[in-house]
Amino acid sequence: MRVMGIDPGLRNLGWGVIDVDGSRLRHVANGVLHSEGADLASRLLSLHIQLENVLRAQSPDCAAVEQTFVNKDAVATLKLGHARAIALLVPAQAGLVVGEYAPNAVKKAVVGVGKAAKVQVDHMVRMQLPGVTIAGPDSADALAVAICHAFHMQSAGRLQAALRAAE
Asked: What is the three-class DSSP state of 109?
């Protein structure tokens, strides 16, 4: 199964794609999309078009997006919410099921600690995807989201198998 993780951002939207085969994870690709345009609408359209192109090129089976946390700056939080909407919309338009995870849930799944620093997340992503070249912090976060989703899918699959066996 191919999983795409997305770390939404209005200036920099990170994305990462992994292949999952049982408990084995393999890096496929990652990158950062940069919005272009002078106004918010143009920047959102730019992200939408770029993310559609990545999705088409990578052909994921499912996607996962990091949830937004509330900043002290309400305007910045609202703008991030717009970028997050693009991150949810594009995979949904492609017919993919999209998982959503809080930042501390992603860190807990990848590092083992919900309040891990970015450098710890980056390190653990590199440990779980040997040989990966990461395009930047936003793509490292996106790969972490994809890994988190893969772990949750594996857990759900084991639960379903146990329920079937119990019947």
From this structure: helix
